[in-house]
Amino acid sequence: MDELKNIWKQIKSETNGFTDMDREDLRKAIEEQSKGPVAKLKKQVFTKWVLCIVFTVLIAVGIPFVTVLISQILLLVLLAAYIVGDVLLYNEYKWLQKATDMSTDVRSALQLYYERVRKVLRYEELIGLLLYPISLPAGFFFGLKLGSPDKEIMQEPKQWIALIISMIVLLPLSHLLTRWLNKMAFGKYLKQLKQNIDELDKL
Amino acid sequence: MKENEFLNLINKHSGIIHKVLFLYVDDPEDRRDLKQEIILQSWKSVHSFQGKSSFSTWLYRVAFNTALTYRRKDKAKQKVGIDEYTEPANIPSVDHKSDLLFRAIKGLSDIDKTIVTLHLEDYDNQEISEITGMTKNNVAVKLHRIKEHLSRLLNPASNG
Fold first, then answer.
1. Which of these, A8, A33, A153, B133, could form a disulfide with B120 (CB 3.0-4.6 Å)?
2. What is the pLDDT of residues B67-80, one digit of tens each?
3. Interface predicted TM-score of the whole assembly (ipTM), two decimals
4. Cβ–Cβ gap B41/A12 under 8 Å
């Protein structure tokens, strides 16, 4: 290894000239936003949280204007679901806000990032599982009501059958789509982290 | 630590950041982003530098952690033999041996790069173990394998 160290030291001494960094660049770097994966996730979660709050407000404001009792009940259920979604997304955002000490050892840093990203993705899937079963029937009922404003909805068996079939088909599809989108967005990254963790652990 | 003091230290040890950038990413956009991220993460974590270790050791930790948790845009390169690795090392060229060594190290896995870089920087196995979070025994075994691998790549004639 002496030969390698000698060559390495030569690289160091010969490349000293290019190592100076522009002072202004350094100052800008510490003022910039992080472009790391956790920062990007945080931004996504924040956007979702804001959208969720907007929908919550819209639903709350819309309830007094709805005269049909069943529609009001549906809106109240949807409102409750969105309020729960607001709280869950806020918790997720606060959790992502926690600072990461990047001066810890490599294994701890990798493990922390792996667990944090995985936890957030699982949380997203959980929120979807909570909201889809409520949003889908609510949308179905509203659609029926808009199509036939003078008729009582859900009085015909075929409407119930259509609703049940929609739920059986669309709920799992929505969940699978969420998982697939998460895998497309973060699957490779999580694999990269896990491989490095495993390599640190194996002999 | 005040901002000016921090920036002075970063500038003084900027070679560490440059080495990590050249070893871990090739894409110019990735390199720009990772450089900014290392400096930013160093600034955010500077409160944890309490002088128990040298600043260079602390900066190596932050730089390696940032590089290894960085989500790259370029495709992950497979480990390749030295002759198949046709891309230049992209460091200011010193001589053929230096270029070979740098290319050989770039061809290693991320973890092996970390271990061998620290070793070449004269960190002992105990220090490497503390920085990486590996056991000292694992460091010794991995380092032995890396040395053999690099020797074979750099001296193919003498290895038959």
1. A8
2. 999 987 655 544 44
3. 0.83
4. no
